[in-house]
Write a structure and sequence with these properties.
It contains 10 helices and 10 strands. The chain is of the alpha/beta class and about 250 residues long. The strands form 2 sheets. It has a 6-stranded mixed β-sheet with strand order 1-2-3-5-7-10, with helices on both faces. A hairpin with a 2-residue loop joins strand 1 and strand 2. Helix 1 packs parallel to helix 3. It is globular, with a radius of gyration of 17 Å.
């Protein structure tokens, strides 16, 4: 794929039919700015462009999967932020091949949405997960992914309260994700990806269409309204004050 964005914090590696995309933000807790958002979206497109690819695995570091938007993106132009996050979520949701999230480290805010955008999600029993948007005073872009993946009751609680859940608590509450011991996340995610990659590519594309179309269409149909709500809420004086204090 020509013209793809390049960012050293987004690493792409191939192992046979598996393409592994790693977010390596290091001390930034894998926060995403405009550059890394664009590179991550392009990495998904590039992976699918290769006919040898059958499955895409997204991972972070053992400490942080992703903690959402970087301060400069949060405090920058609202429309640019909405465009960046909308494009990134659609790059994952519209990926025609199965996607696996190895969310070993914490996934907060937009980072949680990234994990939940994948078809198979593997979380750690001990890591923290939160849809903490209202803590910052604004509504999310792609928030409908939370009840879609976690279930209506738990998903609504996560969005309204913004509180942090350990993976083991999510499992106890019946979340629609796989939760394993922290040290087993990468191994289990790779095992799932390897099993998926055994099937023919076209069969995987057809299965993806059958399994993901409902959730994908629901999330995509909600995006326009979510973007408008995010722009209104994120530009309020109270939200700007909270974001400024947190960053």
């Amino acid at each position: 794929m020509t013209g793809a964005a390049v960012d050293p914090r987004i690493e792409v590696a191939r192992e046979g039919a598996l393409v592994r995309i790693s977010m390596q933000g290091g001390g930034q807790h894998n926060q995403l700015d405009s550059s890394s958002c664009a590179a991550l979206a392009d990495a998904f497109a590039t992976a699918v462009d290769d006919p040898a690819t059958r499955v895409v695995l997204l991972k972070g570091t053992p400490t942080f999967f992703c903690s959402g938007a970087a301060p400069e993106l949060m405090q920058g132009d609202g429309r640019d932020r909405a465009d960046q996050w909308g494009r990134l979520l659609l790059a994952v949701l519209d990926c025609p091949l199965p996607t696996v999230a190895a969310a070993q480290g914490c996934a907060l805010g937009g980072g949680l949405l990234l994990a939940l955008s994948c078809d198979v999600k593997v979380l750690s029993q001990s890591s923290r997960y939160a849809a903490n948007f209202l803590v910052h005073g604004f509504t999310p872009i792609g928030g409908s992914l939370v009840p879609a993946a976690m279930g209506s009751t738990l998903g609504s609680e996560m969005l309204y309260t913004g509180r942090t859940f350990r993976g083991r608590e999510l499992a106890e509450r019946g979340a629609g994700v796989q939760v394993v011991p922290h040290e087993d996340v990468d191994r289990e995610a790779n095992r799932n990806a390897a099993r998926i990659a055994q099937a023919p590519r076209r069969s995987l594309e057809l299965m993806k269409q059958q399994l993901s179309s409902g959730t994908r269409d629901k999330v995509k149909s909600a995006l326009a309204g979510e973007i408008a709500a995010h722009l209104e809420s994120s530009l309020s004086a109270e939200s700007l004050r909270r974001v400024g204090m947190l960053h």
